[in-house]
Amino acid sequence: MMIYEHFSVVGFCNTYVIGPENGGPAILIDPGHVDNELINIIEKKNYKLDTILLTHRHKAHTQGVGTLLKIYNPKVYAYAANVLDFKAIRIRGNEILKCGDIQIRTIHVPGHSVDSIVYKIGQALFTGDTLNASRISSTIGYMEQHILIDQIEKKLMSLPDNTLVYPGHGAPSMIGNEKLFNPDLSERTASKWVQSKHHS
Amino acid sequence: MFNYKTCKKEGCTAYVCLDSDYCYRHSADKEGLLTKMDTIFEKSDKKISDLCFTHGEFQDKDVTGASIISCDMSWCVFRNVDFSQMTMNSSFFGFCIFQNCTFKDVDIRYSLFSGSKFINCDFSGSLLIHNNFSGIDAWKCDFSSSDLYFTTFCSSQLRDVSFEDTNLKKTDFRNTVQRRLNFKYSNYGAELYSIDIL
Questions:
Q1: How far apart are CA A43 and CA A111, in angstroms?
Q2: What is chain A's mean pLDDT, rounded?
Q3: B-side interface with A, Cβ within 8 Å?
Q4: What tens digit of pLDDT does each residue of A41-59 get?
Q5: Whole-model pTM?
Q6: Chosen from A181, A182, A187, A188 to mutate, greatest number of chain B CBs within 10 A
Q7: Topology of domain B56-179, CATH
């Protein structure tokens, strides 16, 4: 399995193309914007775009869907039924999807938005706007921030330390590194530790 | 992409080394693996891609102009290695030690150096975009005249490090220990404290 990153200059989001080593059905995650560079990745590797996975419905991550639907005939998966007037196949988390021989596990991680989905493909985790390198994504309020941290701790931090993290914005990471160096998560862990000491 | 197979040794979660069934630490033929790796480093085209080699030690190597793509070389030690004019993409160098290494005029994108130790390393004149330097310990390092767009240094220890005339747009310095840093002519303050686009 190969993973190719593409930086979308519209919305500054990361788009990922995932496919087999020698061409075949491929997956595209979060097409924020379609340009020649992205089309070249798909075409030069002899990929047939089979599946588009959307991590959430924000424009920065979805604006390229329309263009891709004009060129290819992919299935579009998202938590929301409609994304920018395009119909998507609804997912709720805990599903297993297939694209050729590649298996995709969906994980629902609300907080940044209600419809945030993380995709686990092999040892790689495509986190969209939930967990970035050394920070959690923005939320509209403290309650949502609490929910997001809670969901990340329960559903993502329980994965093996060597799981690769490919976020919607910024640099890649690993689950083990996030446990050690993400201040947003470690502050909470520290306060929990203090609380547990206080109660014991 | 490098092989996602984990080491056969019970309890070890490291990825396997080259085409072996074990990681470097648990391999019976460490010397053989190092020789193979030396051959890869000495290839005339210097194109290194889709390989995993963790816990290795490399000294006095010249990999100038190399292209490193989708490799995992976490927990390695590099001493006096010249990486000048190298291009690197999607590679993982977590928890490594880099001592007296040169990264002049390199183009490194979407790569991870988190948890690594950099002693007396020169990154000047480089493109270091979308990289993860979280939790690093850097001493006497030079990032002058470089572009560090969307690179994170969260939870790092930075001592005697120069960021002179460096682009720090969306660079993240949260939770860092900073001693004797030089931000002359750089856009320090444009770095990432909140990302409204996320």
A1: 36
A2: 91
A3: 1, 4, 6, 13-15, 70, 89-90, 92, 94, 109-112, 114-115, 130-132, 134-135, 150-152, 154-155, 170, 172, 174-175, 194-198
A4: 999 999 999 999 999 999 9
A5: 0.91
A6: A181
A7: Pectate Lyase C-like (2.160.20)
